[in-house]
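Page 37, top half.
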Amino acid sequence: MALFLSLSNPMCKMLKQPLERMTDADGNNPGVQPISTNANRVSWQGQVIHLSGRQWQPYDDGSWLVVFMESHSRYCMILSYPAKPDWELLQQDFYNHWKLHAIAWLRTNRFIRNDDHGMQVLDNIEHYFEKTKVHSFRNLDRSIGAHIAEVQHYLHSLFDDHKPRDFDSDEAWELSMFINQQPRKIKGQRSKKHQFIPVDRFIDDVLYRFASGICDQHFPNIKSGDFPCPYLQKPVLRLLK
C-alpha cells in the first residue's frame, strides 16, 4: 500500500517544506505530473487558498484554507485555519479528516449499522495509516487543480451571497459535504452519462479499503465480509522520484 500526497508550490511554500518534485519515468516535466489512485495506492492533491482582502477576510489577519482532493473520486476535504498551519499539524489533520469523512458517509448510508462495525472500520483505518508508506511531493496535477479552482468559485459565491462573519471548521465541513454531492464531468464530456458524483466514488473506495469484515453480501471471488475493488486493474507500482 502507498499514499501519495501531491502538494502545490504555494502549499509547500506555506509549509516551508522543500519537497522533491515529481517527474515522469524519464525524469521529465517536473512538478506537473498527473497522479492516480488504484487498488494499491491512494493519491491526494493538496492546494492552499489564502482568504485575504475585503470580501475574503473573515479574520482580521486573514485565514488559510487547505483543500485536499482525491485523484479518482475528485472528493475534496476542506480544512480551515485561522493562521498558517505547520507540516506536522497539517498531516495529522489530514488523517483525522479522512477518517471522519469516511466514517460519516458509511454511517449515513448504513454500511455501519452497529458499534462493532464502527470499531472494525476504525481499526482498519488505523492499521492502514500505520502500515502505509507515505510519499510527499511538490507537484500539481493540473486536471485536479482545475477542479480545486471550482472550490474557489463556491467560496466566492458563499462570501458574496451570505457574507459570513467567519469561516470556521464547521463551515468548511458543510461546504465540503455540499461540493462532494455535486456532479462532475469526465474529461470535459457534457452528457449526463459522462458525469459522476464524487461521494459515490469515495464511498466505494472507503468500503474496499477500510470496511473489510463488515459486508453482509457475497461477491464472486471476494473474501466473505469484504467489498469488491472499484478499480479494474491492479498495476505494479512504480514510484516516481
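Page 37, bottom half:
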Amino acid sequence: MTATLDKTRFERLDHTNIYISDKKLLSAHICKYTSLFNLLMILSDEYYIGAKKYFPDKLESGDCYLTFAKDFEVAGRPLSREKKERIKKIRDEVKETTDWLTSCWTLKTEEDYFMWRTYAPDPYSVKIDTTLSHLLNSLELSNYEVYISKMNYQPRRHVVFQHLTQYAFYKYSYYKGEEEIRLYFLPLTPPKTKTDSIYLKLKNPNQLLSSITISPFLTSLSKGKLKGFLSKTFNIKEDIIKPSEIEERNK
C-alpha cells in the first residue's frame, strides 16, 4: 500500500508534476529559518528535505490518536468487518505519511523572534527569503510529485478528518502563528530502500535567495565576518545579506 494525496483537491501546474491548492500562492514571498549548514548546502546547489516523522509535533510524527469520520458507526451497532478494514487502512496510510519528504516554509515575512528561538536557536543560523515560484523553478523535480498548500489550523478537540489530504495539511491551532506553507515531495518511482532525507539539485541558487538574515544570537563581530565570507566565497551581493533587526544585550 502506498499512501498518497487526492489530486482532485489541487490545481496542477501545466506540464509538471506539481500540484498546488491555489495558484495564487506561486507569487507568495516565503521564508525559512534554518542552519548555516543548510544555507551553505543551498549555495553549493543542494537543497535538504527531511522526513516528517522527525518533527517534534506528535500529530506530525504519527504518535497522536486521530479521529476520522470513517471511525463512527450508528450507536448500538457493532463495527462490521468491512468498517474495521477501512479504519485500519486509513490508519496505516497515516502512519505511512510519516516517511514523506517534507519541506516547511512560512508566509510570515516579518522577522519573528519566536521563530528564531523555535527553529533556529543556534547562533550559526539564518533566515532565508524567496518566492514559491523561484523555489520551484530552482529545484530538479523530475523524479517527484510535489504537493503544496497552506496549513489549516483548528482546535485540537474539534477536528474529525474526512480524508488523508485534510490530515496532511492540518496542524493544531497552537501553531497558527507559524503561517506555514508546506511542500510534500513524493517519489514517482518507489525507492528500493527507504530514505529519511534527500538533497535535491538546485539550479542557480544565488537567484533563488532574495535575502539572507543572520541570526540575532550571533556576536556582532561574527556577523560581519560571516557576511564577508558568504559574499566573497559564493559571489553573493552584499546588500542581500543583512543582520537581524532584533537586538539582544551583550551581542
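Margin note: The helical segments are 36-43, 58-61, 81-96, 113-119, 132-138, 164-168, 205-208, 220-234.
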